[in-house]
């Protein structure tokens, strides 16, 4: 029977020991993030790398209790009813209830790796699409507000509890299409969500930038990733102001805005 394993571990060794006890089949919930640490998300840098490369496990970084519950329900369905092999991993942290509530239908897609949290205003296409995971999602929501109020820029906010799952499913769809050239093409979940629109996509993670970078090849629009190691001046997650700077620069690189606005934002938020 799969185990629901609650633990606090900052190392790969601790997680591997738990996986061994669970016979490589269970749901690991790690609350290391509630403790202070010099590591991003209070785990050693090897942890997200190991999780991303462990093909028999799927890592999640839920942003809220609502997301964690949706992922847990789907994981139990997969393991107990569908008898799927492997393990699931979730980071846990305090839910301060500051995120907008989602519908049950939308948050159900948290298990698939992403769902839309905030749409752009009606009759207005988003100038940029912002993706966030875990505790960085709150920073992304705040950045969307700053973009709207300070710079009159519309944005769309997506929650991405698992960049790794999105990446793997993207590769699976590509492989299937290559092996079945005469069949109808499969579309991965991230491609279904983001479509073929060309408004830039900015993906943010509390881990190293490489975790969000995993989905870059499946985004048809200009793509930028931002992580805990992207900005040497910051300590921990990218702030909402730094996310705004990255968004303005992405729009400047695309030619939608003058690059001067990114420079003005650096001065306005006292980041330069």
UniProtKB/TrEMBL annotation:
Transketolase-like C-terminal domain location: 113-215
Xref: PANTHER family: PYRUVATE DEHYDROGENASE E1 COMPONENT
Protein name, UniProt field: Transketolase-like C-terminal domain-containing protein
Lineage of origin: Bacteria, Pseudomonadati, Pseudomonadota, Betaproteobacteria, Burkholderiales
